TrEMBL record, chain A:
It comes from the Bacteria. Keywords: Chaperone. InterPro entries: DMSO/NO3_reduct_chaperone, TorD-like_sf, TorD/DmsD_chaperones. Pfam families: Nitrate_red_del. Coiled coil: none annotated. This is TorA-specific chaperone. PANTHER family: CHAPERONE PROTEIN YCDY, DIMETHYL SULFOXIDE REDUCTASE CHAPERONE-RELATED. It comes from Azospirillum picis.
Automatic annotation (TrEMBL), chain B:
Its cofactor is Mo-bis(molybdopterin guanine dinucleotide). Residues 684-804 form the Molybdopterin dinucleotide-binding domain. This is trimethylamine-N-oxide reductase. Residues 1-38 form the signal peptide. The lineage of its organism: Bacteria, Pseudomonadati, Pseudomonadota, Alphaproteobacteria, Rhodospirillales. It comes from Azospirillum picis. The keyword Signal applies. Its main location: periplasm. Belongs to the prokaryotic molybdopterin-containing oxidoreductase family.
Length: 238, 827
């Protein structure tokens, strides 16, 4: 697969992205990959486990000081991130917000809402809708290729959204530091994979999320995955 | 550390150390799926390439396994009529509603049993470790046993747990509770408790269990078969043992033999159409009156078998007086009297009486007519009618109360029946149980009465009891938020429990309304052993594990063993046995019996397990077995285990109870709600029968739903006249309602249902719109938000779910934006 080297979109409101304009193209792309990895990592975390009190507090801050700054830095417009933060603020403060977010997480992603869910597995959106289908096998093979497996306290299917995002983050980082020539290609493949189902997942979040925050967060992820960028094999440029 | 940094430091992947390709694939798959890769080879030996023979409540099947994943299935090739719902077994394993981890309701985690209970059902659960969850459960059980006593723990857990002989979690729960001091248990069931209450007085046994007069006997001898409130095409699809659906072959044979059939039912069943049978659309709740009307004709026209009545029954004279208007109600049960109640014309009632006695007639009853207020009267009236017809014990004649479940007309092989190796045991007394602390066992359907009235007296089967003051319940292998009636009343009563523990594989409504939720493995994720055919015992199947448990699920046995360890009874609970040891025990017991009787030749266990299945021949002599033949032939030598040794048309034991809601002979008693009542509160009768495509609520969360659902909801069948009067068309969303509750459903307009009756089959998952609203709308179609929670009578205290009036309207409001079971892809 040909790797296209390009800069990330320069957002009007993205100081980090704006700051990379003068760097050589390959370096800029590598930096972009690193920024993208940060943003993807935050998204993976949001959908991997319910939020704790300190994390909710960090998410409530203004965009550039808050936990979602990395998503902004990757190029997602601040206004959209503000909307997610507003949804979070609308849940109140302290334990009330934590509880509301936790309920939403359980209902949407852990099956507690029965089928009132946004099922966070690729298999739910490809094929017959059952979990652990072909996408799980494909992701298992990909993880094996990269010498990784789900952490012991995260015994999830390999095609769980967070696993796919975590692998994307990892391959983006390896692409950025040039440690593996195949990383960029793998990252591109994961982008394509995620673009195939995250939009539907995000729609399910919008339909079923009682908190509003996860619907917004899924929207940000969808936006992130569809930014007009390409990933460089940073190592090949040096 | 900055909290935002915490978020970015969450790690979900870790490096794999092994470089072996197989090991790599294995370790990346969660829950040990990778370990199942090793089973692929074994699977190939058992079935076809990558296939494992196993089984389920829907039948035996070959599971196809690839890379440790359960990717497909096909029915056992000798299944007479594979169940369309079988594919749901695979869906269940991989359902998005699987419980993935141990979870505790947040408020409960913080405050324990003192936590508020209003937020149950709201979904605010916190994932905890297995250690934490088990510590919580064990701690609360210990605390209650020490501070209160066994009367504070309700372990009457009930439901269609997973398949197999060793995997019954309800036995495990009982055993653990008994070893730790005991608990309150439940008796009987939600299916046929009225029948089980009354039949021991009438024929000395439950009658509806065990072998029935064989299909072959019917095919060769019966001229007229009458299915009364019985649908053999439906519930026969499922079974506790692995069903092989032989009843479909029976129907083919009956059709070829040209046996005349009559179906007495408010619904024109597929089985009725298949046989080209006569459909008599009786008014619901009046079956007893119809039977009495026929009995009256038999009596007054002297059509009844006086010899059989004389030799084989007791108390006919009093019943005859009752028919003649000289009984307790002084009303003569003429065909005209019955016609007014049943809306079956009097001349048809007379004709039925003649038809029954003029040819070899098999009367078949289902259980729907006894799941009604005063439900004990139906089985009694039915058996009394059969006794008057006089063909009990003749080939192809008499009566049968179970041709609709477990293919009970199948002939039996000579193989011993498999039985669980574990027993619940008896209570180990750690403290005395004073009478004032209440009953040790309650009738299962009276749970809400118990919750609402701790310490209150109640009567059951001739005895007086007090309801215990329960504070905790531990539910395994069942879903009370499906099977119990009057959901809104139940929801309120459930708050009496300080602690609710649910152990299941999926987020049923009961799990959602729990405090502690423990993820159990499905049948496909553990080894077991089971028979094909409850009665036929056609084969033993090595139900091999298809895949390793997904997520953090554990087998019920492992969960209870871990709890037993925390409660200090590990050795007593397990007897040092693994699950495979118990499977070996089940087989060894059967082999010992078979060897002693020289009935069938069983190989050693390892050979059986390797082979996967042993099939048995059906002895020719068993093909024409006739129930009650011995009794008929010599009612003295082969007396029934009743007080008089005969069929008791009148019971002195029941007379002594003095119950006005259960007189001492079969009687017409007006139900609390029915279409014939003078000022009926709602105009339509609700028939909440067993679902066609599910097993109660099981498989409702699967793709099987696509076979039947309407507008994304449970279908509601309504007669065209009733629909027209309400402006309802097929496909419309309708609202069913009465004073107890309301739910949405999808309309199916049909003339296969009697006017005045609507069908909403039980088992649709409860989906409340607003858990804070006492009468909230169920958006999906749970029939039990509408049904009443009243006992049939003081005798059986069974469910009266089929006594229910409702109204229906086209739903014109804004449809709830969240609809249950919408596939995410369509959201």
């Amino acid at each position: 697969m040909a790797i296209v080297v390009a800069s990330p979109p320069v957002s009007q409101t993205s100081p980090a992205a704006a700051g990379s304009a003068d760097l050589p193209a390959a370096c800029a792309a590598a930096c972009a990959a690193a920024r993208l990895a940060d943003a993807v990592g935050i998204s993976a975390a949001l959908f991997g486990a319910p939020l704790e009190a300190g994390e909710v507090e960090a998410l409530r801050r203004p965009v550039r000081q808050g936990a979602l700054a990395a998503i902004s830095a990757a190029g997602v417009p601040e206004a959209e991130i503000e909307a997610a933060i507003a949804a979070l603020r609308g849940l109140g403060e302290g334990e009330a917000a934590v509880s509301a977010l936790n309920s939403a997480f359980c209902l949407l992603f852990l099956g507690a809402g029965g089928p009132r869910a946004a099922v966070p597995y690729e298999s739910a959106y490809r094929g017959n809708g059952r979990l652990f289908q072909e996408p799980a096998a494909e992701m298992a093979a990909l993880l094996a290729r990269w010498g990784l497996h789900p952490a012991p306290d995260f015994p999830e299917a390999p095609d769980h959204l967070t696993i796919e995002l975590a692998l994307l983050e990892e391959t983006l980082r390896r692409a950025a530091d040039g440690s593996d020539p195949a990383a960029a290609e793998a990252a591109a493949g994961l982008f394509a994979r995620l673009r195939g189902w995250v939009p539907t997942f995000a729609r399910a979040c919008r339909a079923n999320d009682p908190s509003g925050f996860y619907a917004a967060a899924a929207g940000l992820l969808d936006r992130l995955l569809h930014l007009d960028f390409a990933v460089s094999d940073g190592g090949a440029s040096h | 550390m900055d909290a935002s940094t915490t978020l970015s430091r969450r790690r979900f992947l870790t490096a794999t150390s092994s470089l072996s390709a197989l090991a790599l694939a294995g370790t990346v798959l969660p829950g040990g799926i990778g370990r199942a890769l090793a089973a692929d080879g074994a699977a190939a030996a058992a079935g076809g390439a990558g296939e494992i023979l196993t089984g389920s409540h829907w039948g035996a099947f070959y599971a196809k396994v690839e890379g440790g994943r359960f990717v497909g299935l096909r029915p056992w090739e000798k299944d007479y009529h594979p169940n369309k719902a079988l594919a749901g077994v695979q869906d269940v394993v991989y359902s998005s509603s699987r419980i993935r981890y141990p979870m505790v309701r947040r408020a409960y985690l913080e405050k324990g049993p003192a936590a508020e209970r209003d937020s149950r059902g709201g979904g605010d659960f916190v994932r905890v470790s297995w250690e934490k969850a088990l510590d919580l459960v064990a701690g609360e059980l210990k605390r209650l046993q020490e501070q209160d006593g066994p009367w504070s723990v309700y372990a009457g857990s009930y439901g269609w747990r997973s398949s197999g002989e060793i995997g019954n979690p309800q036995i495990m729960l009982t055993r653990l509770m008994n070893l730790t001091g005991g608990a309150v248990y439940s008796s009987s069931n939600y299916s046929k408790a009225a029948l089980e209450g009354i039949m021991p007085y009438v024929v000395g046994s439950i009658d509806a269990a065990g072998p029935q007069t064989t299909y072959q006997s019917v095919v060769e001898n019966t001229k007229l078969i009458v299915f009364w409130g019985s649908d053999p095409f439906k519930t026969n699809q499922i079974g506790f043992a692995l069903p092989d659906h032989e009843e479909y072959k029976w129907f083919e044979d009956m059709k070829k033999a040209g046996i005349k059939a009559i179906f007495i039912d408010p619904i024109n069943l597929d089985a009725c159409k298949y046989l080209g049978a006569e459909w008599l659309a009786v008014r619901p709740g009046t079956d007893v009156a119809l039977a009495l009307g026929i009995c009256h004709v038999l009596l007054t026209e002297k059509l009844y078998d006086a010899d059989f009545i004389e030799n084989c029954t007791f108390g006919f004279d009093k019943f005859a007086d009752y028919l003649a208007g000289k009984g307790w109600d002084k009303v003569e049960k003429t065909p005209e009297w019955a016609a007014a109640l049943t809306e079956i014309p009097a001349d048809v009632i007379r004709r039925l009486a003649h038809q029954f006695v003029e040819q070899r007639t098999m009367l078949v009853s289902g259980w729907s007519c006894q799941r009604q207020h005063h439900g004990e009267q139906w089985p009694w009236a039915f058996v009394t009618l059969a006794a008057m017809v006089g063909q009990v014990g003749l080939p192809g004649g008499g009566f049968c109360q179970n041709y609709h479940l477990y293919s009970q007309g199948s002939p039996s092989s000579a193989a011993p029946a498999l039985a669980p190796s574990m027993s619940g045991g008896t209570r180990k007394e750690r403290k005395p149980w004073p009478a004032e602390k209440g009953a040790k066992v309650i009738p299962v359907a009276r749970i809400v009465d118990m919750l609402e009235g701790p310490g209150k007296p109640y009567e059951h089967n001739g005895a007086k009891h007090l309801y215990p003051d329960v504070k905790l319940t531990y539910w395994v292998g069942g879903n009370p938020f499906h099977h119990h009636q009057d959901r809104n009343r139940m929801r309120q009563a459930w708050k009496k429990f300080e602690t609710v523990i649910v152990q299941d594989f999926q987020w049923t409504a009961s799990a959602r309304f729990a405090d502690i939720v423990l993820p159990a493995a499905t049948t496909a994720e553990r080894d077991d052993i089971e028979m094909i055919g409850t009665i036929s015992k056609r084969a033993y199947v090595a139900m091999k594990k298809v895949i390793e448990p997904v997520f953090e699920a554990k087998s019920d046995y492992e969960i209870f063993s871990l709890l037993a360890d925390r409660l200090g009874v590990a050795r007593e609970f397990t007897d040092g046995k693994s699950e495979m040891d118990m499977i070996r025990d089940v087989y060894a017991t059967a082999k010992k019996t078979a060897d002693a009787k020289k009935s069938v030749a069983l190989p050693e266990f390892d050979e059986f397990w390797q082979k996967g299945i042993i099939e048995f021949e059906i002895p020719e002599k068993n093909r024409r077995w006739v129930k009650y033949a011995d009794f008929r032939e010599d009612p003295v030598m082969n007396m029934l285990p009743t007080a008089t040794g005969k069929i008791e048309i009148y019971s002195k034991a029941i007379e002594k109870m003095g119950y006005d809601d259960c007189p001492p002979h079969a009687s017409w008693l007006e139900p609390a709600e029915w279409l014939g009542q003078k000022e009926k509160p709602y105009p339509l009768h609700l028939n909440s029968n067993h679902p066609t495509h599910r097993m109660h609520s099981q498989l409702n969360g699967t793709k099987v739903r696509e076979i039947y659902e309407v507008a994304g909801r449970e279908p509601c069948m309504i007669n065209s006249k009733d629909a027209e009067a309400r402006g309802i068309k097929s496909g419309d969303v309708v609202r069913l309602f009465n004073g107890r509750g309301q739910c949405l459903a999808g309309a199916v307009v049909s003339d296969d249902i009697r006017p005045g009756v609507v069908q909403l089959q039980e088992g649709a998952w409860y989906d409340p719109a607003d858990i804070t609203d006492a009468k909230t709308l169920c958006k999906h179609g749970d029939a039990n938000v509408l049904t009443p929670d009243i006992g049939t009578s003081r005798l059986a205290q069974a469910t009266s779910a089929h006594t229910c009036l409702v109204d229906v309207e086209k739903f014109t409001g804004a449809l709830p934006s969240v609809t249950v079971f919408d596939a995410p892809a369509e959201a």
